[in-house]
Amino acid sequence: MHQEPSAQGEGAGAAAAFAATALAPSDSPQTPLLAKRPLRILAADDLRINRELIRRLAEYFGYEAEIVENGAEALAALDRSSFDLILLDVQMPVMDGLDAAREIVRRQPDPARRPRILAVTASASAEDRETCLAAGMDDCLVKPISPRAFKACVDRQFSTTPPAHVPAGSVPQDARDEPLLIDFASLNASIPGLSPAQLAAMHRRMYRAVTSDFEAIWPRVVEAANSSDNGQLAAALHALKGCFSTLGWSRIAGRCAAGMHQARAQQFAEWSTFPGELQQLYAASAAEMERYLAAADGGESVAPAAKDEAGET
What we know:
The protein is an alpha/beta fold. It is built from 12 helices and 5 strands. α1 (12-21) packs antiparallel against α9 (196-227), α9 (196-227) runs antiparallel to α10 (230-246) and α11 (250-264) packs antiparallel against α12 (274-297).
């Protein structure tokens, strides 16, 4: 079983450097959540940037989480230790979060005695939420996970009073027809307690980590397009959607989500044009990110680029 005491392997430098800046212990709340609710936390996610974000998010609230890469490793960790809270990415290789949750429920059918299980998902749809709850999960966290959302979820699950019902469609969604290349407002608000310099440094390291993930996953997109493989394309786009959403790259994340759903339904048809379209969106998003970082280095405020500045047609 692979447990990560630190980032290793492909993309490790960027992820570790990002983690050293984002959610530093000095930026933790004055009264850590740990003081109110001491919890043993286990989390499973197959993407390095998400594992590091979860680790730093836990540390922000005073916790030390055990982080693994898939559902099978999470079950192995449960064989060795007991946990109060488990975060499971819904889609992972080897064993996904849904199957892991079902196995945890099978092993311990009494809800009062088993750990609380949180789905970590890139989708806020009512259908996906119901699927997670039907698998035995107790609640859902939507990527990228904000400290506010994490705390609210923990409070709901471990409150001494019955939690208020959270409607399936209660997670706000952006109603714009054309998302921004980068949603800087949401990105900057997702992690509190950082100075402008710390925030810019964090975003720079996140950008490097996502670039590394994109370079690793991109060949799978090309291979899937060349062979018209819906299953492979859906898996690759799911991973990319999570990466881009974490960095606030709304437009390319939305395009990945749309392609992923089409591929899952065996309805994807843009095999010859899609790789080029995705590369253009990636280049436009990267250019916008670099413009933001350059302005941040100069102490300037950054507004979203106009459409004609972002490679729009």
